[in-house]
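Problem 12. The chain below contains 140 residues. Write out its predicted structure in token notation.
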Amino acid sequence: MPSDVPQSPGRVPVAIYIASPGGDPGGVLETHCRQYAETREWVVAAVFTDAGEQLPLKQRTGWRAVEEALAVGTARGVVMRTRSMVASSSEEWERLAVGIGELGWFLAAGLLDAPAEPSVTAPSGSRSPLGAQTINTPGP
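Solution.
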């Protein structure tokens, strides 16, 4: 995990998290996440992957590394391709996102993969259409 991530005003450091039983052949998932982060002017500080059998989130090596990156300040948010990489339902995603938001961090998924209105949920609970589910996204 790099600790020398360039910090510039307005550039929020994020970790990319990929959880896929088949891994990420060709880096397609990582590329999508990087593009999603770059369009928001976030800087990718680290990439963590869990491949193979999908264990409960707290038992995954890659997810535990994500939590460590957040705890030590290497990242302030987590970008993943889809919400199903960390949650099996919209309710589970919301619970995780609220818990992470209470700690001052955020989750962002580049694509919605569960029946839900594409939106952004701000800490106040207001919603606006933006094509991805993002919780507690910090400003520049």
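Discussion. The two ends are 23 Å apart (CA to CA). Students who got a different answer should revisit the alignment rule from Section 12.3.
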